[in-house]
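The records we work with from here on pair a chain with its fold. These numbers are not coordinates but entries in a learned vocabulary of local backbone shapes. To see the layout at work, look at the sequence and tokens printed below.

. . .
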Amino acid sequence: MLSIETERLTIAEFTLDMAEDVHQNSLDEDNRRFVPDEVFETIEEARETVEFLMSRYGGGEGPFVYPVLLKDRTNIGYVQLVPVEDGWEIGYHIAKKHTGKGYAAEAVKAFLPVMMKKHRLNRIIGICVAENYASRRVMEKCGFVKQYEGIGPYQGKNINICRYLYTI
């Protein structure tokens, strides 16, 4: 069972009782704008997704998605490692009311070494919409290096993206 502790956060495994938080956290405008496939309009949609994500923890195929919790157990978002065509991609989302406090960078910095060791990885990709400056700052704070900025595939469309690489 995965449990990563930082000064302010816990990254743990999902439990079914987190479905309502997942639903609420997914509804903010940044999530709708930048990762619309991660918006859950109903608690039932969120519950089905949480069940699926929980089923992935035992295997090696991913995606590996974990809730980010404050020390009081408030669910504020997630951090994830997702298989992509040329390796593994980092992903993260912190609910709007908790942004601007450094939680995403704190979670990613703690998550990377644990997941890279667990899955024997030496590189992880980060991709975001070029105008998602908050996501770009998180990756840069966490040691990702920008490899490309320009038109590329994202969420089924060709749009202006930034592609980053983290290596050890």
